Amino acid sequence: MQSYSKEQLEKLTGLNIRLIQQWIDENRFIGITRENQDQINDLTLVCFVTGAVMSVSEIKELYKKNQERLLGGEGTCCG
Hints:
two-stranded antiparallel sheet; 42% helix; globular; HTH merR-type domain-containing protein
């Protein structure tokens, strides 16, 4: 299974790199620490402050759908 860097996660989920690092530090990526942060993959679970838990895969899919909705499937907002 592919693992993601923070830079890849930013592009795939729309989350800012600083926020990703903060979440790692706050143990919101379940089982992930600074020492093993290179092991984040689609099955990694993320715990939100609301108590909701989602996989990285689910977050990626929601981000993709939201981008398609906002951009009308065209890839740009001005094209």
